[in-house]
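It is worth pausing here to work through a concrete case rather than discussing structure prediction in the abstract. The textbook approach is simple: state the sequence, then state the predicted structure, then interpret. We follow exactly that order.
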Amino acid sequence: MKKTIIRYGFYGFLTAVVLFLSALVFGQGLSFETQTVLGYVSIVASLSFVYFGIKHFRDRQNNGVISFGKALGVGMLITLFAALGFAIIDYLYTAYINPDFIDQYAANSMSNLEKTLSGDDLVKAKEDFTSQMESMGSSSALAFFMFVIVTVIGFIISLLSSLFLNKKQS
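Step two, the predicted structure:
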């Protein structure tokens, strides 16, 4: 089991890093909204190894049998590798590659709020957003937030994969 988790976890980790760097190189000039969509696609792509890791473990190492709980455990451990990959690359990006990212994102978000809201709604939304940015304003906080997001999405993918792949001994 350990070997499968490390192998497929590494694949997820590597996919996260490669897709992030690809988006960095080829995604210059894209809107924040488009970059967000590409980011979620990258997360799902790197977490696809959860399904394949569970299937590999069931079919090749566990004689075609796996319980729901065991499958979920394997999936979550693979997920943690991908989440770590995203957290590390996100930290490096916001701390060293583009340290102005937080300010750029905040300015873009404020501009979008001004386009869609007015009056008291705008004032309230700006206050809420400013408060959020203060709590997540460091590279470490953003990396942790990314780790949590990927882990939550990975839990959902692990749960679905476990439902589809669990197979009791006959």
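Step three, interpretation. The mean pLDDT is 89. The two ends are 22 Å apart (CA to CA).
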